[in-house]
Amino acid sequence: MAVSKASKSEQLDEIRQRLKESASFVLIDYVGITVKDDTAFRRNFREKGVEYKVYKNRLLKIALKEAGVTGFDGFLEGTTAAAFSKEPAAAAAAIIGGSKDIPKIKIKCGYIDGAFLDEDGVKSLAAMPSKETLLAMLLGVMQAPVRGLAVSLNAVIAGLARALQGVADKKSAAN
User: Fold this and answer.
1) Do the Cβ atoms of 32 and 104 come closer than 8 Å?
2) CA 20 to 30 Å from 76, out of 24, 31, 90, 144?
3) Sheet with 51-54, side-by-side order of all strands
4) Which one has a higher pLDDT value, 21 or 154?
5) Helix, strand, coil % (nearest 5) of the chain?
6) Is 16 within 8 Å of 63 (Cβ atoms)?
7) Pair 44, 37: CB distance under 8 Å
8) On the CB side of 111, how many CA atoms lie within 13 Å of its CA?
9) Residues 116, 119, 120, CA angle at the centre, nearest 5°?
10) Is the Cβ–Cβ distance between 51 and 7 less than 8 Å?
11) How far apart are alpha carbons 110 and 120 in whole angstroms?
């Protein structure tokens, strides 16, 4: 079944928009997966806020070239699906998590902040903690010196209070 020129134009516009809005994307080879596996895989993406769609390689090449994204031509062969995410590591993490149960899924490559990622790069990106986790870790590191200072000052004040109480006890015992 031939795809109309208008439909191709709409798909190209959709890819352009997703490239603009996404912090990262990952391309995968999905050949040989069952409908049941594909349905579970897509559900996993929806739960993680990742947009996943199969596009024609030619349309992906055109959109990537227009966006100034290079290095993907050799990977846009065979069956290709794209996972787009507004969170930098979400697409990679969703693919790694979903592909554990579906061994036929193969990571082709990825992209984040102007940088091409090979399969190992995508796996490394997936292993990174989420933005919220990183911020919590940073906050914990920033709070540690303040907490240490508060504990030290509290110990000094408690020591002073004990010393004053000792002086007061001596005076009351002498009277």
Assistant:
1) yes
2) 90
3) 51-54, 81-85, 24-29, 106-112, 115-117
4) 21
5) 60, 15, 25
6) yes
7) no
8) 21
9) 95
10) no
11) 10
Helix or strand (DSSP H, E) at 62: helix 57-66
CA distance 77 to 74: 7
CA dihedral 52, 72, 66, 54 (to 10 degrees): -20
Q: Are 26 and 106 in contact (CB under 8 A)?
A: no
CA max distance for the chain: 107
> Which amino acid is located at 126 in the chain?
A
Report d(CA 130, CA 134) in Å as an integer: 6
Q: What phi, psi does 27 have (nearest 5°)?
A: -105, 135
Q: In the 8-state DSSP scheme, what is residue 33?
A: -
Separation of alpha carbons 78 and 15, rounded Å: 18
pLDDT tens, residue by residue, 114-130:
788 888 888 888 877 77
Both tokens assigned to 37: 């596996």
User: pLDDT tens across 130-159, in order?
Assistant: 777 778 878 877 877 777 777 787 887 888
